Every structure is written in C-alpha cells, then in structure tokens.
TrEMBL record:
Topological category with respect to the lipid bilayer: Multi-pass membrane protein
Keyword Membrane assigned: yes
Record SUPFAM superfamilies: ABC transporter transmembrane region, P-loop containing nucleoside triphosphate hydrolases
Single GO molecular function: ATP binding
Protein name: ABC transporter ATP-binding protein
SMART domains reported in the protein's UniProt record: AAA (SM00382)
Subcellular location: Cell membrane
Keywords attached to this entry: ATP-binding, Membrane, Nucleotide-binding, Transmembrane, Transmembrane helix
Pfam hit, one: ABC_tran
ABC transporter domain boundaries: 369-603
Source organism, top-level taxon: Bacteria
Amino acid sequence: MSKQGNHRNNINPNVMNRFRYSQETAIEKPFNWKQLVRLLQYLKPYSKNLLPKSIIVVLINTVIRLAIPLIIGYLILEKAIYNKDADLLVQLIVLVGALYLIAYIANYYRIRWTHQLGQNVIYDIRKHLFTHVQGLSNNFFDNRSAGSILVRIMNDTGSLQDLFTSGIINLLMDMIMLVGIIVILFSLSPMLTIAVMIILPLMFFITTKLRRNIRRSWQDVLIVQSKLNSHLNESLQGIRVTQSFTQERENMAFFDGINTDTLERFRYAIKKNSMFRPLVELTNAIGTIVLIWFGVKLIQSGDIGIGIFVSFAFYLGMFWEPISRLGQLYNQLLMAMASSERIFEYLDERPIVAEIKNPVELKNVEGHIQFKDVNFSYDNKRTALKGINLEIKPGQTIALVGHTGSGKTTIANLISRFYDVTSGTVLIDGHDVRDVSLKSLRSSISIVLQETFIFSGTIMENIRFGRPDATDDEVIAAAKAIGADSFIEKLPHGYETEVEERGNILSVGERQLISFARALLADPKILILDEATASIDTESEVKIQNALRKLLKGRTSIIIAHRLSTIRDSDCIYVLDHGKIIEQGNHDELMEQRGEYYKLTTAQFKMLDVV
Ligand SMILES: Nc1ncnc2c1ncn2[C@@H]1O[C@H](COP(=O)(O)OP(=O)(O)OP(=O)(O)O)[C@@H](O)[C@H]1O
C-alpha cells in the first residue's frame, strides 16, 4: 500500500489528471418493491417447470424439518418414553429416519433446481441487456466507456445470481419456517415463547441500522470496478501509444491507485457485511440463555414437561437459522437493488433514433439522396451542420471535402441515421429516413471507414460480415475484384487465417482492402467511403482506384477524402466549412472558381512538389 502510494507521489499531477473516465454515479434509491417485482418478472418463463418443482421440494423439506422436533420432543419423549411404549418408540424412530431421508432427497433437488433456475435467469437478463444495449443509438455510446457498459452486462447481472439461485426460494422456505416455528412454539408454551421473542426487536434494529451502510458500500465497489475496467480497456487498446511514449510507469501508477481503491472499498463493504452474522449469532446466544433460564423455571414449576423443553431447544436452534439467512438475503437484496437499478437504467434507455410504428420498408433502393435545410448538433450546444441542401441522384458519386471538423462525417452519419437531424429532412428515394425501417435503411448502405474494424475470426468470416449467406467462392471473388487476394494468399492459412479482434496481424492498408471486399460483397445501393483510401500508399492507390471504380459502379457513392486526387472524377464535389457548404461543382468548375477547393488542391500539389 505504502509502496503504491510512493509510486503515485513521484508522478506529475498533470499526468494523473489525464485519466478521467465517464464514471458510474451511485444511484441512490430506497429499497423498492416495484423494482423487485420487475426483477421477479424474469422468473416468468420458469413458472411452469423449474419454479414449481423447486417450490415443491422446498416445501417438502421445510415441512419435514418443522415436524421432526415435534416428533422427537413431544411424541418420543413425552408419549413413547414417558409411557414406556416400546412399539410406538420403534415406529416413531423409523418414521424420523424415513423423514430425514426424504428431507435429504428433497434438499438435493432443491439445490440442483434452484441453481439451475438462478443460472437460467442470469442468462436471460444478460441476453436481454445485451440485445437492448446493442439496439441503442450512437449518442448512448458517445457518453459511456466500453468498460462501464461491460460492468453492467457482466458484474451487475452476476451479482443478481445469489438472489435468484438461493435467495428467493430460501425466502419462501425461511418465511414458512419462521411462521411455522412461531405457531408451534406458541401452541407448546405461550409464556416461554414470549420470553424468547424478546430478542426480535434487537434483530430488527440490527438489520435496519446496517442497511443503508451496506448498500452504499457495495455501490461504491461497483463504481471503482467500472473505473478499473475503463482504464484497463483503454490501456490495452492504446498499449502501443503508451509504450512508444514510455508512459507505462504513469499508467501503472494510475492502475495501482484504482486497484488499491477497489481493494479498500471491497474490504470496507466486506467489513460492513460481515457484521450481520455475528450479530445474529449474538442474539442467538442471548435467546439460548433466556430459554435455559426461563425454561428450567417452568419445568420446576411443572408448567411444561421435559419433552416440550427439548422441542423448544430444537426449534430455537432452527429459529435463528432462517433469521440469519433472512439477514443474508437482505444483503443480497440490497446488492440486487443496487445492481438492478443500474441494469434497469440501461434497459429504460430508449434509442433516440427510434423507428416509427409501421415504418416504410425500403425495397429495390435506387439510391436517391436529398438533404433539405438540414441543421444538426450532437450536443445541442455546438452546431455541426448548418442549412445543408444537397442532392445525389441514383448512381452518382459525390465527394465531401473540407477542413478537419467541418462536418463531412456528420453528413454520412445522418444518411445512415446514426443520429436524427435537429431540423430539416434527409430523404432516401423520397422517403424521410425517420419513416424508414432502420434495418432496410442500413442494409442498403455500406460504410467503409479509415479505422476498419476487424472482428476476431478468419479473414473469410471478416469479409463475409456484410452478407452472412455469401459462399466461399463469392467471398474470394470479392477479394480478387478488390485486389486483396494477393496478400491474403500469402498469409499462413490464406483465407482461413485467424485474426484477432482489431486485426493486429494486418497492416492498416490490408485491413482497408478487407473492408473494401466486405463492402463489395455486401453489394449495397449506397456506399460511403469515409477517408477510406487514406491509409493506402500511392502505388496501391492506383490498384485501389481500379477497384474503386468497380466498387462504385451502379451505386450512389459519397466519398469523404482529404487526399483530393481520389475524388477528381466525382460528379459533384461539396466543399464544407464549419458545417456549411461553401462551394459545389465538379473538379473543373471548382478549379475555375479559384475558391477554397482551388486553394486546397494547389496546397496539396505544392506539398507533393516539396516531397
Ligand atoms: N459524437 C460526437 N459528439 C459531439 N460532437 C461531435 C461528435 N462527432 C463529431 N462532433 C463534432 O462535430 C463537428 C463535425 O465533425 P465531423 O466528424 O463531421 O468532421 P469531419 O469534417 O468529418 O472531420 P475529419 O475530417 O477530421 O474527419 C466537429 O466539430 C466535431 O467536434
């Protein structure tokens, strides 16, 4: 700990400030039944098989455990032994043995089925959450780190496991047990019962007093865990940059810091948590003392027999068990409340880009795109696009050029409806994109980005991503058409070479070629190339130009490029500046105008001359 502290002290504070992650904020809400009921909905699919089966075995087990002390104390001691009835004694012993056996079998199935039930429910919640998160709009992901989303899908659902595995079913068992014991105790000796029950308020006090503390401390653990995940995720993704700037020590210092924080908060939560059981056991001890002291007096005065006292002792032993377990369940519930609040927060998140009821299904897309007076802001503060009007006829190729941050990618984002316009309309084949089903819209568009995402799997699978039903021959044909085939053939296992997530074994240009092949195979009507050729060297670019010509043929294409040589042949070039179109026309027209495009082009030629 002190070592870690020293480690941190030597680091420039400016560096430590670099590590800021969008953090989970603790959601403070009191325990609420509505939330629990919502959580319990996940049991519904099992209401006809696993749930009733588990309840039946729990009931059998509970009833037997309740009956045994009565048989031993009241029937065996008070009736059979007291009356010296040997036959009855043997029968009762056989009965107790048989009941124990049944209880053990029931218990075996209780454990098996409740665990099965718990695992199934967690599987369902995780699936529901992942499916939901996957359908959320881009702005959701803009504001959250991958690490914090990961924590909710994995850790938060995981912490519900105990509740569904043992908690809920045990709750039933414990409640029946408690009520059963109280009823039996009262019927055996009301006076002794009242004496022993004096401890109940103490129990209640303990559970309510610790309640808030425990809940908060578990939330704290989840918060730092999410920070740790975010940092790990970022560190691993940026490992090369970290190593090249020799920032490992700073990275490590920060990691140490949050790792220690996690450990400490966990320790604190455990400390709070572990106070429950000893306190329950303390009350247990007090109860036993009261029983012996008061029970012996009642026996001496002849108010109760020895058999009733023995039954009492049995029941008292059993009585604290469900109370202590209910305390445990209470903890589980508090943790489940914290986790489920966080899970439901995501589940209640609605995609901002939502489909209308009965959306238009785009069929036989022609690829006619129009922007009418489009204004857009990502955050309602800064304007990304201002008064954009443009029209791309089916099969045309247009180019978007302009300085960094001028709004080129934003136009592409609005065509695919990753975001909705702030005002104005974007039309595809005459339909407002907001009226069109997202699936039919996005499956008509392929986007090739500069930063290509390669999924873990084979090269073949990666190219097939855009059209999962394509045959191997079709995949290979697409790769050949693009010119990717020659480098793929040289890989150790050709098309079957496994690439890890992000495709680290491939060069940036090779990844780019794969994404071209992916786009060609998907055969979209609309193609968006966002800086897609930026990572390809000039020699390969000649090949790529040929491939591009094939790729663009018969499609409406939008090319975003800083390297202006790639867009010369476009039907129309739009020059953007601070979210506005400031010039438009084909290459020759714009060169004649001697405006911004002319300046950009000549600047690039001069740079090439210098090189
Ligand atoms: N997800 C986002 N949230 C908030 N603002 C954003 C987001 N994405 C982009 N912006 C802002 O919107 C403006 C336009 O960005 P855009 O990505 O369209 O620029 P660009 O012309 O494609 O730039 P580049 O040539 O660097 O790719 C910029 O000011 C940028 O900071």
